[in-house]
Amino acid sequence: MTAPSARTPARERLLDAATDLFHSRGIAATGVDAVLRRAEVAPATLYAHFSGKDGLVAAYLERRFARWREAWDEALAACGDDVLARAVSVFDALATFPSNPGGGDPSAGDDARRGCAFLAAAVEIPGPEHPAHPWLLADSALLRDRLRQLASEAGAHDPDALAGELLALYDGALAARVRAGLLTGDARPVPFPARDLALAAVARHTA
Amino acid sequence: MTAPSARTPARERLLDAATDLFHSRGIAATGVDAVLRRAEVAPATLYAHFSGKDGLVAAYLERRFARWREAWDEALAACGDDVLARAVSVFDALATFPSNPGGGDPSAGDDARRGCAFLAAAVEIPGPEHPAHPWLLADSALLRDRLRQLASEAGAHDPDALAGELLALYDGALAARVRAGLLTGDARPVPFPARDLALAAVARHTA
DNA sequence: GTCTATACGGAGATAGAC
DNA sequence: GTCTATCTCCGTATAGAC
After folding, report:
1. MF terms per GO, please (chains A, B) (predicted)?
2. Is residue B103 over pLDDT 60?
């Protein structure tokens, strides 16, 4: 631990603030001045590090994608050679993400309630011209390709079909968190056992 | 068909324009002036019918919720007494929605590519104070309550669990459309047979 | 690299006539 | 009910000093 006088560099603070705000309030609804205030950074400093708001959005999603892939890598490594566990490792990764290695804001607790950051950004970002678009694509491509590969390794008779089911469980689990957040105040929501359902799906596809 | 001189009332044109733009570009990213241009309506007319942008957003989601519920009602009615078909009727409704009874903009074809309008709005709308919040809640509550009821009618041993699986398939199917839209240019996406998977889930839960 | 101060455009909203 | 014209403020971005 360095002394508190050695502050986190402005670029990191900007990305941490952008992560919190863009994900919790939405990208378009969050002004750069809100990010600046949260990061305690002056406007000109933002434009010294990023091309503008679009560049900041792209950097935010780039970092999030890298961390998400790393979390999945670690979950995969923890599975060893167990092809069944590997096939459902995406749900282990989901349980530990985001781990907040840098920022560490306490409000990140309900981060999970906001669903998939990439799907949410896909709705807000107009077209392929946006500098953040490659990272939206990267997330969907990673999920599609890895789940297909893992389904194949697990011995699925139809890897594409199993991968599709696993992806639906993944997206369904994330959506369930958002819906649970909306319905607070009602009777507590039924927990959604995505990993168990995924294990059952793998079993069906390899029987 | 009425004569073209009898134009659709301004309020309807505003809601049609809001539906197109809010859903395809996002709510916060869409300015009221864009809605006004699309609807060919003057600013003051908007404020004569709605309290402001927030009121327009609420009215848009209210109407969308009503139409969605009607579509599901009709799909249910078409099932008759077949409890198995009724349990998966939400996917029949999904296949016919939105039917565009009023507006009828040709660009509504890729409307499906944008995922669930209520989940998307939930990410963009800050808190329960927003006038549109009740409609976000209504969508999740309708899905939860109806799916549970239908799962129970179908004879599921654990209606809550089956309802959760059906909801995951529903959200998974909508998310799959968004991901498919992102990955265009790649090999064509594998179609996601949500209704068939739902039928299988019902069968497992009633065996 | 980071700051203060400011320019500029667009977005939400209103006034008042028809 | 609908229009034209306008007002204000906020959000994005830049200029120039330290």
Report:
1. DNA-binding transcription factor activity; transcription cis-regulatory region binding
2. no
Q: Which two tokens stand for residue A69?
A: 């892939």
Give the chain B residue nearest A115 (alpha carbons). B123
**Residue A105 — very low, low, confident or very high, per pLDDT cuts 50/70/90?**
very low
Measured from the Cβ of residue A80, the count of other Cβ atoms closer than 10 Å reads 9
Residues 6 or more apart whose Cβ sits within 8 Å of residue A123: B26, B114, B115, B120, B123, B178
Per-position b or e across A22-31, b if 16+ CB within 10 A of its CB: bbbbbbbbbe
Q: Does B34 touch chain A (CB under 8 A)?
A: no
Q: Which residue places its CA closest to the C1' of nucleotide D12? A: A32
Q: Which strand D bases fall within 7 angstroms of a protein CB? A: 1-6, 10-16
**Whether B26 and A175 lie within 8 Å, measured CB to CB:** no
Beta bridge partners of B61: none
Q: Quick check: B134 contacting A, CB < 8 Å?
A: no
| A58-206 classified as CATH 2.30.130.10 | no
Model confidence pLDDT, tens digit, residues A111-131: 778 899 999 999 999 789 999
Q: Are B161 and B172 a contacting pair, CB within 8 Å?
A: no
How would residue A98 be classed by pLDDT, with cut points 50, 70 and 90? confident
Helices (H), chain A: 10-25, 32-39, 43-49, 53-77, 83-87, 89-95, 117-124, 133-153, 159-182, 194-206
Q: What confidence tens digit (pLDDT) does each residue in A160-186 have? A: 999 999 999 999 999 999 999 999 866
Burial class of residue B207 in the structure, from the number of CB atoms within 10 Å of its CB (0-12 exposed, 13-18 middle, 19+ buried): exposed
Tell me the pLDDT tens digit for each residue of B149-179: 999 999 999 999 999 999 999 999 999 999 9
